[in-house]
User: Which sequence fits this backbone?
């Protein structure tokens, strides 16, 4: 291919990468050295002082724990609920099956962000405001997951199921040993898209949390950057940002292939 | 495959779907009914007890110039960011769909914004747009163009948010096009090549029609996401200056949590749900098609 094309592409790609590269560079810019148009990157003596200070000002470690609990708590419950429901819809026939399936799929059509007003009231009524459970609860059921598991389970040969039953396996043993193993790739894809969606979620946790004990990283970062004492201290702000995105980016670099596959699989953020 | 009835306890399938049904009912079905009901009441700091007002909240919104501005901002954001992102994603995918040594690096450069939390991306861009030494203005300076107060100017702030939105999601859409391109039949393109079709003709008459499904899918996701724009407004502009960047979801949040007007926030939610339903139904039928043919 013509070198000119590759060059154009390289320039555009660099432009795309610059915001993150700049943020990382500025995060080690010494706080004693003002940033100016002439001194835009890491400055004359790069330092990790901004990171130490960011950790002192805001409980980022706590926010990390919260986010991890929220994300994996949601995922653990989802994997159970979607496997059970997906199995029922894939292999059982029962009255109202189509109607119930449609009712569950309504969740795909009414995005949860449009329901923050009534869901906030519900969380208040359940006395769950400002708890980790409040952040997780609305996501325990996943219509997309149920749909995905139903499609996946349907591809399992019926004969395997019948053989397991003949051998005396009950429904749970059949699900666990016949259906779950071949569904692992689909479950991993679902897991990655669930993790990245809930890791990044902002509006809902913003609405239902009000203290460091239940705030996830996203809300924590927003609170951090809006602290009066931080103002426009960009090295500090970018250090906070890198603290939040760093591990996620590393994880992505390692599992790039799986991440991209999971996005393709779901197409639902 | 034909589905035979499974013998066993008749209640079992109901028990298996019960947990999912419970959460869907509690956090999707019930709130949808509740919000529609609440939208019919005056319920704010001025009234002691909620008062039935029929479509009063909707009528008030229709006549409210601030809300008209919000609708305009939202629509502008959708009609600019969606086509630009989708077309750019297609162009990038076409450019990257060949044997290229640095392919992985290019793909990474375009895709990484998609996995950043919007809050972090917005924080970085808040800095990018800073007057004086923000990189956007530094870049304009290199081109001998005057620097701008991007987020402080009513004319530019919405454009600034659009640029962030396009930067953030284009790589994500590109991935769908790359996957789509990989799945196209080679023989057809070889035949076109033999028949002397120019690259532009090939793209126009072969690639684009063959990628129609991907385009529809990506576009509906883009539209739904654009209508749900809120994080970056919260971080970067707070809806200002003077409402210039307030969009529907941010306004819902603001109406409930800053102005404590639940009736009005509910009516706005119903409007948002109505708009989103149109596009999510299309999106859903696409998901079903993809899942079926996979």
Assistant:
């Amino acid at each position: 291919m013509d070198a000119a094309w590759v060059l154009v592409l390289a320039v555009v790609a660099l432009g795309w990468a610059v915001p993150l590269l700049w943020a990382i560079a500025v995060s080690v810019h010494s706080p004693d050295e003002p940033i100016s148009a002439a001194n835009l990157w890491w400055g004359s003596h790069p330092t990790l002082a901004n990171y130490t200070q960011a950790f002192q000002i805001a409980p980022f470690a706590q926010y990390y724990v919260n986010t991890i609990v929220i994300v994996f708590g949601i995922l653990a419950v989802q994997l159970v609920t979607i496997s059970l429901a997906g199995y029922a819809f894939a292999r059982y026939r029962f009255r109202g099956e189509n109607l119930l399936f449609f009712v569950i799929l309504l969740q795909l059509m009414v995005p949860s962000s449009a329901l923050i007003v009534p869901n906030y009231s519900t969380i208040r009524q359940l006395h769950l405001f400002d708890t980790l459970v409040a952040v997780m609860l609305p996501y325990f059921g996943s219509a997309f997951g149920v749909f995905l598991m139903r499609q996946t389970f349907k591809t399992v040969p019926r004969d395997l199921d019948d053989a397991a039953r003949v051998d005396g396996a009950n429904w749970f043993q059949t699900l666990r040993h016949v259906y779950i193993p071949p569904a692992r790739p689909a479950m991993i894809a679902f897991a990655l898209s669930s993790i990245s969606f809930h890791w990044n979620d902002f509006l809902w946790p913003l609405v239902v949390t009000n203290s460091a004990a239940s705030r996830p990283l996203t809300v924590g970062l927003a609170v951090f950057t809006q602290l009066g004492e931080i103002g426009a201290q960009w090295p500090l702000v970018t250090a906070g940002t890198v603290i939040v995105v760093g591990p996620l980016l590393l994880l992505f670099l390692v599992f790039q292939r799986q991440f991209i596959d999971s996005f393709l699989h779901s197409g639902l953020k | 495959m034909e589905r035979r009835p499974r013998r066993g306890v008749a209640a079992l399938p109901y028990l298996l779907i019960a947990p999912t049904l419970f959460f869907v009912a509690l956090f999707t079905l019930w709130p949808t009914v509740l919000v529609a009901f609440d939208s019919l009441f005056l319920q704010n700091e001025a009234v002691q007890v909620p008062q039935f007002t029929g479509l009063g909240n909707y009528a008030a919104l229709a006549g409210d110039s601030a809300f008209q501005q919000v609708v305009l901002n939202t629509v502008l954001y959708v009609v600019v960011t969606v086509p630009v992102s989708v077309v750019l994603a297609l162009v990038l995918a076409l450019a990257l769909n060949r044997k290229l040594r640095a392919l992985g690096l290019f793909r990474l450069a375009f895709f990484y914004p998609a996995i950043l939390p919007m809050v972090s991306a917005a924080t970085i861009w808040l800095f990018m747009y800073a007057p004086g030494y923000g990189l956007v203005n530094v870049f304009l300076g290199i081109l001998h163009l005057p620097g701008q107060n991007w987020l402080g100017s009513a004319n530019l702030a919405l454009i600034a948010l659009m640029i962030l939105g396009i930067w953030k999601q284009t790589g994500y859409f590109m991935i769908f096009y790359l996957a789509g391109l990989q799945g196209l039949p080679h023989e057809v393109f070889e035949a076109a090549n033999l028949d002397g079709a120019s690259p532009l003709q090939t793209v126009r008459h072969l690639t684009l029609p063959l990628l129609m499904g991907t385009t529809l899918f990506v576009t509906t996701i883009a539209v739904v996401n654009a209508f749900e724009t809120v994080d970056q407004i919260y971080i970067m502009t707070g809806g200002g200056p003077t409402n210039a960047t307030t969009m529907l979801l941010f306004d819902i949040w603001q109406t409930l949590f800053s102005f404590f007007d639940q009736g009005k926030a509910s009516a706005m939610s119903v409007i948002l749900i109505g708009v989103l339903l149109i596009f999510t139904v299309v999106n859903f039928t696409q998901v079903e098609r993809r899942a079926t043919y996979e």
